[in-house]
Write a structure and sequence with these properties.
single chain; 69 residues; OB fold (Dihydrolipoamide Acetyltransferase, E2P); four-stranded antiparallel beta sheet
Length: 69
């Protein structure tokens, strides 16, 4: 699969919180930090993602905001 995003990390799925339509997938990357992705339950099923799987994280963001309050 080709995509335009250049920011790519590998990680391990540590948790999946399932709702009725959407789910939240938590991934631990090599630095020990965590990233999360929200997707539909249909996408989760089609991708076959399960806890413990190694996945590629592809990040393409129009804006990244940092806020200190």
């Amino acid at each position: 699969m080709k995509y335009g995003a250049r920011n790519q990390l590998m990680g391990t799925v540590t948790d999946i919180k399932k709702g009725s339509v959407m789910c939240e997938v938590k991934v631990k990357i090599s630095s020990g930090a965590f990233m999360e992705s929200v997707m539909t339950m249909n996408s989760l099923k089609e991708l076959g993602i399960k806890k413990g799987d190694t996945v590629k994280i592809v990040v393409k963001a129009v804006n990244v905001l940092l806020v200190k309050e």
